[in-house]
Amino acid sequence: MRQLRARLQDKLLNHLFFLDHSDPRFIVSRRYEVECLDLVHKAIVLHLEGEYVLSERLLRRCMRLAAQCDFTAYEEQAAHKLLSIYAEQQQQTKYEQLNHTILKLRQIIGYEQEAEMLFFEVQMGAEETVAKRHRIIAKLPAYLARLEELYRLAPTFGIYNALYRVRLVDAGLAGRYQDIIRETAQADSMLAAGVINARRFDQRLNNFMNIYAHLRGRQPQEGLKLAGEFAETIHPTSSNWFYFYEHYVLLALHAGEYEQAHRLLQVAHKNPSFGKLRPAALERWELLEAYTELMLPLEQVSLKRRNQLAVFAALTVPEYSRDKRGYNVAILVFQLVHYLQQRLLEPVLVRLERLRKYQQRHLREAATLRSRTFLRLLLLLPEADFDPARLAKRGQPLLRTLQQAALTGDADAEVEIIPYEDLWQLVMRVLRQGTPE
Questions:
Q1: Is-above-0.70 flag for pTM?
Q2: How far apart are the C-alpha atoms of 436 and 381, rounded to whole Å?
Q3: Which of 322, 435, 415, 341 is nearest to 371 (CA)?
Q4: Which among 51, 131, 223, 405 is least surrounded, fewest beta carbons within 10 Å?
Q5: What is the residue extent of each domain of the chain?
Q6: At the top level of its lineage, which domain of life is listed (predicted)?
Q7: Where are the alpha helices (DSSP H) in 16-91?
Q8: CA pair distance 160, 200, nearest whole angstrom
Q9: CB neighbours of 187 closer than 8 A, spacing ≥ 6?
Q10: Can you tell me whether residue 385 is helix, strand or coil?
Q11: Rounded CA separation 110/72 (Å)
Q12: Who contacts 265 (Cβ-Cβ below 8 Å, separation ≥6)?
């Protein structure tokens, strides 16, 4: 069986050579990178077979393509192989000219590798715990200064890309979402002017960061319009397709377009790769769907889904990240509103107590003002005996604070699947229909 599995795997891997990389919904650099690799591979095989003339021709072609696409490492690799051919054939003049070129390429590669490592460190730090994210935030000014210096030394796409992405991470962590919109617009202008390499620049990432900034910057209507335009630019088999659609659904929810959000969820479920998502990603989709159906009229939710939502609401401990940043508040708030709709007093009080403990333990920072204020609003429920009139009066100062709260960065923020103001209005509507018993 092991041998059979190995042979089958080899046959499947052979099909990789026949994949079509020209689809515009893939990252644009994909087709050119694969072409460079193909040329190097063929040239090496020809060299091993003693076909020096044809091998030299392919390597020079690879160098030209790599130079056009700013693939410095592939250009150096092809040049190094070509250098060995000149050495074997005792072609002194060509050898010396090419050796000079290789030395320059290797210096540029050193700059690009340093820039790439700085970006990797930022990327890893931005996905870690709150404490580690704050440590990386403290280092970002120095990293950005060094990346800008490297870009002056060697203005290649590789260094620009590291600088561009670190700028986006820096603005996102700090909550400067308007800066992200400006950065993405500037990248579009540079691309149109030919300043950055059109064969390398990932327009899909630029588009995604644009709509992400509109979502987090409280401009959902404009972001939803842009997401509709960008949706066709991402291939359904791409690993980024689901991440894009998560934000597409969130934009629809923040814009109050709940039926559109429901349709987008159905599109995601129909993607053949949906069942292959990691458990954490599937849990996020479950939560998105739960909130969407929470905002829809009851008659639009099937009986089967109502039963599934009841099971989800009965979870005793959130199955998401227990870090201070994440979906814990979203889960507990969903459970609370679900039981308010069911008019069940005891489960409501249990969730309120969990929210109170979570607020005391994890929502002390200034950047968590929105989440902390919203939980304080919810904690007024038992104090006002679930009376919507008394709640409206007592909650007015907190509601104003919530509406005026500054934007927070990714380093501290809880995810608002539905804006807290809209959730509060939903709570008030539910209570007007009847209080828990």
A1: yes
A2: 10
A3: 415
A4: 131
A5: 215-298
A6: Bacteria
A7: 29-48, 52-68, 72-88
A8: 11
A9: 164, 196, 201, 206
A10: coil
A11: 10
A12: 249, 285, 288, 289, 292
How far is the C-alpha of 348 from the C-alpha of 393, rounded, in Å?
21
- Please tell me the predicted confidence (pLDDT) of residue 105: 97
* Residue recorded with tokens 């659904």: 249
Q: Exposure of 284 by Cβ count < 10 A (0-12 exposed, 13-18 middle, 19+ buried)?
A: buried
Supply the DSSP symbol for 320. S
Q: Are 61 and 42 in contact (CB under 8 A)?
A: no
Most confidently modeled range among 257-271, 305-319, 401-415: 257-271
The 8 Å CB, 24+ separation contacts for 322-327 are 323/129, 323/130, 324/130, 324/362, 324/363, 324/368, 324/412, 325/130, 325/133, 325/410, 325/411, 325/412, 325/413, 325/414, 326/414, 326/415, 327/283, 327/284, 327/287, 327/414, 327/415, 327/417
- Overall size of the chain counted in residues: 437
Q: What residues contact residue 98 under an 8 Å CB cut-off, 6+ apart? A: 79, 82, 83, 86
